[in-house]
TrEMBL record:
Region (Disordered): 521-551
Residues reported to bind ATP: 280-287
FtsK domain segment(s): 264-439
Transmembrane segments: 46-63, 69-88, 125-142
Protein name: FtsK/SpoIIIE domain-containing protein
Source species, domain of life: Bacteria
Amino acid sequence: MRAYGRRHRRWNRRNPQPLLVVPDEPLTLVVLAAIGRTLFRYRSEVAPVFLALVLVVVGSVLHHSRPGAWPVVTLVTVLAATVAVRGWPWGLTRSAERGYATTTTTLTGGWLAAATALGPTRSPLPTLLILAVVALGVPWWAHRRRRARVRVDRVINAWPNLAEQIGLAGSRIMSAVVDTWGWRARIKLRPGQSVADVIARVLAIESALGTRPGAVRVERDPAHAGRCTMRVLAADPHTGAIPWPGPTSRSLADPIELGVFEDATPVRIALLRRHALIGGTTDSGKSGVLNVVLGNLAACTDVVLWGIDLKGGMELRPWAPCLARLATTPDEATELLADAVAVLDARAHASGQDNTRVWKPTPAAPALVIVIDEYAELADTAPDAVGHAESIARRGRAVAVDLLAATQRPTQKAMGGGALRSQMSIRVCLRVRERRDVDLILDKGMLAAGWHAHTLDAPGKFYVLADGHNQPRRARAYLVTDDLVRQTAARYADQRPDLDPLSRAAIGSVSLSADGRYAAFVSSERHGPGESPAHARGQMSSRPSAERPLP
Ligand SMILES: Nc1ncnc2c1ncn2[C@@H]1O[C@H](COP(=O)(O)OP(=O)(O)OP(=O)(O)O)[C@@H](O)[C@H]1O
């Protein structure tokens, strides 16, 4: 074979074959068509130069036909720049892009007005135009999203050929969207093809698109068996820290975005009427996850936040402006949880009287979320507090008193032999040191089912088990920097709601019972004759003495 190849090449060198082009059309036409095709293919790249040429032509026409029209051109420029500042009509959301659009519009219109009055060749207009093309062209050519969009456009154009090569002939791309991590396309399959055919050809698609291995994911379209979504990840979302984009929820009823899965889809969890457990070894990113949750809850106007941080407030104190209470000692923690049980009892009692089964959080009657950093520490140092926590875990959901506990050591003892854990319907498992911790944090059998949290290799990476998240998919939490924590806490501090009067009164009625334990007394006597508890909710408005200021 090799000998034949060498002989063949030698023969070719001795008998060179002239390259014959025998076009059907005249050569000029063929060349023009080739230039046209190239310009069309690279239309996005040549856009700045093309725009400059259009300006010269329009400027010259206006100068010769209506040189007095420059004030009109100026006025139109001002109007267009005003529109561009707001990001219209391109739907620009980033301030840098809006700034670029405004500058380009202003310079373009300004140059055209000058060219209309003086002529496009009058010095220094040609020099200014060349300088502007270079200065505005560089950010245009370098713009990541523009380049990504162009690449996607080319894939869409080439798809019919690619599809034929990879065995999906007849399928077509209906639409495509470029985002931070790559792009996503909706594909219409040929009748008879199914999403299983596409999934079976993922490796071929990656090869045809020239992506890195593992970059293509295919999801079925729940509404149509002949359609699917193809996700192409230009970059692995988990390679570096992912900056927190800011709060995505304004109400506890909105799902909270914790981070992103490996396929760049967001991890959304609903906290309303759910308790959450966040477990992981030291430095695995537990406080990071708590920060994302707190950043979102701080922006919700229907949640009152209480915190317990027995590391002297090290982790939660930065959120103090948004926390109605913060306990940093075992005694304070016990008192805080006892008060929460009192709130729970009062609400349960009121709901029983009203025949309302659940407490619907509103800014006037907010939910109560208690965030506990290092739950195992609490279990060790404040055994009384554990009873209250378990009571809240068992009964708090219906009356919107929720627990959010992070723990480094999910021991049987800390978890109350599993009683507390079984009430936590959201489990976030960060890196663990020992394999058996996976089952302790998530549930029995989860390690065997593929939830391999011991293999997570960077802080903030986690598995989540919750409603709608029943598969072991790796995710990474957003990183909220210390500065962002401070900014977010300061921003939402004055928008925090107060507890409703009923709950505040319940805290006021907590007293130490004979056996030294806290007890809450919520009786119908507190409401006037004929008043329902709901009525009382609206009437008792004074801040109870038991609601303590932050230490
Ligand atoms: N989502 C994340 N992405 C990138 N880095 C992170 C993320 N979360 C945390 N880190 C980094 O990991 C380190 C430890 O994070 P964190 O303090 O949240 O861990 P922890 O589990 O609470 O630790 P400890 O158990 O000691 O309290 C920090 O330096 C932090 O910057």
